[in-house]
Amino acid sequence: MPLLDVQHLRVEYATENRPAVAVDDVSFSVGEGEFVAVVGESGCGKSTLLFALARLLSPPAAITHGSVEFRGQNLVTMTEKQLNVLRWRDFSVVMQSAMNALNPVASVGAQLADAMAAHGKYTKTEIAERSVEVLRLVGIDPIHLSSHPHQLSGGMRQRAMIAMALLFTPDLVIMDEPTSALDVVAQRALMVQIRQLQSQLGFAVIFVTHDMSLVSHFSDQLLVMYAGQVVEAGPTRDVFDHPAHPYSRGLLDAFPSIRGPRVPLTGIPGSPPDLSRLPAGCSFQPRCPVSVDACVTTRPPLYPVGPALSRCLLNAPDPVSAPASSRASSPASAPDSSSEEDR
Amino acid sequence: MTELLRTHGLTRHFKVGGTFSGKRLHAVDDVDLTIEEREIIALVGESGSGKSTIARLLARVYAPTAGEIIYRGRPLAKLRRRKDLLSYRGDVPMVFQDPFSSLNPAYRVSHGIMRGLILHRPDLNAAARQAEAVRVVEAVGLHPAAEILERYPYQLSGGQRQRVGFAQALAYRPKLIIADEPVSMLDVSIRIGLLNLMAALREDEGVSILYITHDIASARYLSDRIAVMYGGHIVETGPTEDVLADPKHPYTQLLLSAVPDPRAPLDPDAVVDRGEPPRVVDPAPGCRFRARCPLAIDRCAVETPLLRELGPRHSAACHVAV
Ligand SMILES: Nc1ncnc2c1ncn2[C@@H]1O[C@H](COP(=O)(O)OP(=O)(O)OP(=O)(O)O)[C@@H](O)[C@H]1O
Ligand SMILES: Nc1ncnc2c1ncn2[C@@H]1O[C@H](COP(=O)(O)OP(=O)(O)OP(=O)(O)O)[C@@H](O)[C@H]1O
Ligand code: SF4
Ligand SMILES: [Mg+2]
Ligand SMILES: [Mg+2]
After folding, report:
1. pTM summary value
2. ipTM exceeding cut-off 0.95 for this assembly
3. Where is each ABC transporter domain found (chain B) (predicted)?
């Protein structure tokens, strides 16, 4: 049994008109100790997905379909009381912009103590010992127990948030963009540290970021989201080496490299659709450089492509109709050749 | 190559820790930087290294504590007449990091552009101004220009707002655009579009650009020359490809090793730096990088290294680098 198993999850924001479907039929699972990365551009539903997994959504957002099973128990149908037993002890969450999530007027030590006191009965000594332990784990000198957040650098504040999430050695830590406010050196140090802690303590990680290049060397599985849906999912290395979906290819091609020849890049023109007014066919069609006529009318399902899944009609086992325009290139179902050509 | 702007010993300190503490934070110290005509130069370095302070010194938001800025052969400190100052401001406009707060939400796009044109190009009549406004909006890739000019900022995406920022700068007919992290708040998918725009502005309009970023990969994509900052000093400078192929300063080497490169295999032996960037308050002589430096020798603790030429136009401020 996987640690976490998400099936057909759907989250809607109730709005005045049509609801905005921010998470649409998302399924994936996380094994013990696994690192799963979720990438996609701003507004594609990454944070909403994490909030739904941790049952932290509040109106107007609500889970309208699907299940989230943690060790076989469905979190979606649990009461708040049942959830409180699991939260922090079995899974914990590091929120987006954790930089500001620490209380500015309380010392780091006081905040760790509060978090512990809220989840069990502990003596002062136990709290003090555990606080020192978790700070050491994330590489912060325990001297900083008496420091206030503004006395720490951005990287140290992020580490302190992670220390807090590790207080009860959970099996799953859910992290929303924990590094995006940091510069490259601090980012890399934090990524390496998360990986080391994982192998030391054995917890699984779900890691959300808009920067695909960041997770290339750290995650086992990769989910690429677009407009609320998973458009590609698979082992990280395979997706990077042979991206099957045109959106994944576009994202990868949007990163200049510091090695190899300097080549002109194009990025992805246009912007993501309004989630309450999605195109009738493929959500990516208006921006897709290789779309065919069928894309305008047919919503693609997830097709298997090698070890991965891709939500693109060109990945259908029996090829779709001829390309809509001369821009279109060969179907991406032969990822080896097409992804090389596109570089 | 013609020199457009040069700084000599440019320095900016800030008082910190209360009025009477007497402590001074050295945000920028002794910076010599030359920008040629039609050149794109990237200023890179980690958070707090002094990049934005240099930008603000060049834009005359801050006055230097010491040193000077020489623009087209004339020291800025000598510009006293309103007309000269105005003309400098038009020649060297700034584009900011945050596309959501840099445009006034109460005004249409046309407002800022027209204001710039009236102020900096009084020779144009109303019809010529309108034509020029359309031209700059088109030059930054926003179509249809007439319609974009009538929009309010909330009707634009983040990427479009940054383009408007560049259009406003272009209306001044600038010589040097100071772009302080212009893409770091934008989605990856649209960043490249703006980098390409900056490259095109140099080609088509002949402007120079000071591109400030902590993203070395985008600095490489765009720039001819790179200057690396650490703790208020420029620690390495040279042609971009040379600096990337053969980084001399140990800090530049650290910076390069931290760049995530999905196309490269992970180097499991790569050293990971846990060091914290310095806050340079009342520094004693010595190299500011020495606490984090794997190569430090005794001399680094007592003598501040100066930039030394180690290759063609390629210099580093390190006692050990060769
Ligand atoms: N209260 C709300 N009412 C209606 N729609 C909302 C609401 N909050 C969020 N949304 C929409 O839900 C979508 C998903 O938002 P979410 O914050 O999950 O995106 P994200 O992928 O985390 O983006 P980012 O990278 O910017 O953090 C967005 O398109 C957003 O406009
Ligand atoms: N007005 C000010 N008053 C006091 N200190 C300042 C002021 N402006 C900047 N500093 C300090 O000067 C140093 C350099 O800051 P600067 O903003 O130039 O760095 P930066 O390289 O642009 O960093 P970032 O990448 O975070 O934008 C920092 O330590 C900063 O705290
Ligand atoms: S289904 Fe069509 S529009 Fe959608 S990604 Fe594939 S080719 Fe592009
Ligand atoms: Mg988010
Ligand atoms: Mg700055």
Report:
1. 0.85
2. no
3. 5-256
* Angstroms from B121 CA to nearest CA on chain A: 33
Q: Provide the domain count of chain A.
A: 2
Interface of A with B (CB under 8 A): 41-42, 139, 153-156, 182-189, 192, 210-214, 216-217, 240, 250-252, 254-260, 262, 264-269, 271
Q: Under CATH, which architecture does the B3-93+174-316 domain have?
A: 3-Layer(aba) Sandwich (3.40)
Dihedrals phi, psi of B139, to nearest 5 degrees: -60, -25
* % of chain A surpassing 90 pLDDT: 52
Q: Is the domain of A159 the same as that of A214?
A: yes
Which CA distances in Å does B156 have to A237, B103, B105, B187?
Answer: 36, 11, 11, 14
pLDDT tier, A46 (very low <50, low <70, confident <90, very high otherwise): very high
**Candidates A153, A184, A254; nearest CB to B189:** A254
Q: Which residues contact B246 (CB under 8 A, 6 or more apart)?
A: B311, B314
Residue B165 buriedness (CB in 10 A; 0-12 / 13-18 / 19+):
buried
Q: Are B280 and B268 in contact (CB under 8 A)?
A: no
Q: Which of A187, A219, A251 is the last residue of a domain?
A: A219
Mean pLDDT, consecutive 10-residue stretches, chain B (322 aa), reads 94 83 90 96 92 94 95 92 90 84 86 91 93 91 88 84 90 93 80 90 94 92 97 97 96 89 63 69 91 93 95 96 92
CB atoms within 10 A of CB A238: 17
Tell whether A307 and A195 lie within a shared domain.
no
Instruction: Name the nearest CA neighbour of A206 among A40, A46, A56.
Output: A46
Domain ranges of chain B: 3-93+174-316
Instruction: Verify that A131 and A57 share a domain, yes or no.
Output: yes
How far apart CA B237 and CA B251 sit, in angstroms, is 12
Question: Coil, strand or helix: which one is A150?
Answer: helix
- Structural domain boundaries, residue A62: 4-219
Please indicate, yes or no, whether residues A310 and A201 belong to a single structural domain of this protein. no
- Regarding whether A243 and A213 lie in a shared domain, the answer is no
d(CA B182, CA B180): 5
Distance CA(A148)–CA(A90), nearest Å, equals 28
Q: Are residues A205 and A239 located together in one domain of the fold?
A: no
| Confidence (pLDDT) at A102 | 74
